[in-house]
Amino acid sequence: MQSIPVQESFAVPTDALSYNAQGWAKGYQSQKDEYDYWIDDVEGQIPVELSGTLFRNGPGLLDVNGEKIHHPFDGDGMISAIAFSDGRAHYRNRFVRTQAFVEEQAAGKILYRGVFGTQKPGGVLNNAFDLRKKNIANTQVIYWGGKLLALWEAAEPHRLDPYTLETLGLDYLDGVLDEGDAFAAHPRIDPSSKDGTPHLVNFSIKPGLSSTITIYELDINGKVVEQHAHSVPGFAFIHDFAITPNYCIFFQNPVSINPLPYVLGLRGAAECIEFHPEQSTKIIVIPRNNTVLPKGGKSGVQMLETKSGFVFHHANAFEQDGQIYIDSICYQSFPEVEPNSDFREVKFDAISPGQLWRFTVNLENETVERQQLENRCCEFPFVHPSHMGRPYRYVFMGAAHNNTGNAPLQAILKADLETEERQLWSAAPEGFVSEPVFVPRADASAEDDGWVLTVVYDSSRHRSDVVILDGRDLNQGAVARLHLKHHVPYGLHGSWAQESFVKI
């Protein structure tokens, strides 16, 4: 594909670093306070038509009473809710009161090991053979079927009050989940499932020498209406998946795990994962509702192979002309977690960047083709919700400011996959962005007619802003910049609810 020039909002030389490493690291300081206030410091104007609630989830505590956790993915989940109504916005945040969070806050110290390397004080002897799972509820938050659920992919959801963010307890989907069952943190919403209504589609993984993938579909009332499990060979380390009207698609990254150092208290479970670049990545295609594959394909699960790489997140997938297209953020290798490393001292230039690739799957011929769609370092892709699982034109992503190399996400990139045009809004050099969330304008006819919402950490002020961009033209700059009274540590995922959950 040809390279299209990008109009950038900030004049930072492209041959120089666009960020200060110390400034970036400050965004990983804990936010121990909980707030509840109307946002009155606003640059620009909040669109009156923007009505609903932006929910965000991510690690709010990066230490427990001064004891640092080893990796942000081990941090306790903190929900932020920004409710919009009549041109105003209200901010609230609360920690998810998981059992482990309550216990550790009462004890004033770390009591649980973390998946990504956090250890209890006391050395190896105090960590060996302690295999308890700490449900940290820190990855995604979504409002569905009248419930607000905080998700962490290795355990049950926590249900929250959407107005107050009070933790109401574990949610077992009306008895579908058993105690300790997983419910992944990357649900997809099919805008029109086989019965013509939206479905929330999600999965769980039970890894091992062979792995079990269970797929769940929930109707608009939150009732599980489809559930089927499939065994696939090998260890499956899968964070995200993609859907089309007929399929669920998973990328089984070429990794293995040696659990012995974890069992012996020497490492966290994720530190025991090894990437194998000599092996292929497997694409697992599972029919939804036990349908039969089109054009003479076989029924049931199909596994195809493609060049080695590592995928955390998928942008979208769709079926067209007898083929399946999957657009994904792909890395050359798994960014391994080192036991003695400090996540605040990342050497970005030593790590390969995530980039957007398209995988074209032909189930009848059992072939996979790859094409790079975006060279710039990017992550957290988001598409128009009505185009989930369908052909689409635009994808919004967090991106590096410079068009080459690896760096923190400081910009929002809009990629037009038809014309190959790009738009970039950048918060560099002092700002660092979160995942963009696209909110369509009511009765919009164009796919990009809506707003892009992102939380930006301003390292110069040690505060965060909620930034509203016009999805049709990022180059015009922010429509509004809502200045919060504090910082929000770098988060993971978020979602939009049509209801404005604030009591006026």
SS class? mainly beta
User: What is the name of the CATH topology?
Assistant: Neuraminidase
What's the total number of strands? 35
N-end to C-end Cα span: 51 Å
What's the number of domains? 1
Q: Can you tell me the CATH architecture?
A: 6 Propeller
How much of the sequence lies in strands comes to 35-45%
Give the overall form.
globular
Q: Could you describe the largest sheet, including whether it forms a barrel? A: 6 strands, antiparallel
Please state the CA-atom Rg, rounded to the nearest Å: 22 Å
Count of helix runs = 4
Text of the CATH class: Mainly Beta
Outline the low-pLDDT stretches: 1-14, 291-298
- Specify the helix fraction band: under 10%
- Write down the overall mean pLDDT: 93
The CATH homologous superfamily name equals TolB, C-terminal domain
EC number: 1.14.99.36
Enzyme class: oxidoreductase
Pfam families: RPE65 (PF03055)
Keywords: Iron, Metal-binding, Monooxygenase, Oxidoreductase
